[in-house]
Please model this.
Amino acid sequence: MKLLFRGHSAALLLLMSLASSVALVAQENGVIPTNKILFISREYTKPGKDGTPHQLTEGAYLRAEAASKNAPHYFAASALSGPSRTLFLYAYPSFAAMESEHKGIISDASLSAALDRASVADGDLLSETDSSIWMMRDDLSLNPGFRVGAHYMEISQYFVRPGHGQEWEQLVKLVVDGYKKGVPDAHWGTYEGTYGSHGGGFLVVSTIKSASDIDAEFASGKQFEAAIGEDGIKKLEQLEAACVESSQHNLFVIDPKMSNPSEVMMKADPSFWKSK
Model:
């Protein structure tokens, strides 16, 4: 999502990933609040095994979960860029809530057995799996939350150089302030790696309703630049050069056929989630 600033500095590329989806959706009208803890399970599919084959094996999980009151809630997002993979995203208000859900699954013998059987079939399609846990950084986020009606996600991953966390926080807070002034409808959630990620890892996550929101994202760059000014852009470039070791930006499509959304998400957008 970086074509707008092709030929410009990496600091400007950072701005676009942080400014994803500028369409305004009020908190009380179309935004589902974000929980503090984000657990991500990644499944990398073998060539030719993504899409329908993967949806079919994931259906076994959904059938098992539908029969149990202890089933976990999550949604799936399949990659439109990078390696073929699907992310399964679980959100919790605390680690205690995560533990409680895990205990509920273990205590349900029928559910546990059905999930084990589904894992065997699903595993035949996969080349690799991993998982990680991330914690929301409210101070580095802007208008976070899941946008009702979202069918896409942008996820950017940054690795901060050891010992340069302070510059990173300054950088992102400058971006937050600039978008509050120039593009106040922009939204994203920033998460810091806690478990299962290389040190210094951060995720910037946003949900997108349609491709037109992506177009609006590109167009918002000029508004941001006008708000922060030439001196602000130079400061961002300096901070980025000092603290960002590497970054990667990817687009995903949300797949209801591999998701078990919460009751809140289901009620907010039933036509989409029931399409599974």
Summary: Residues 221-243 form the longest helix (23 residues). Confidence is low (pLDDT under 50) at residues 1-13, 20-28. The CA atoms of residues 49 and 125 lie 6 Å apart. The two ends are 28 Å apart (CA to CA).
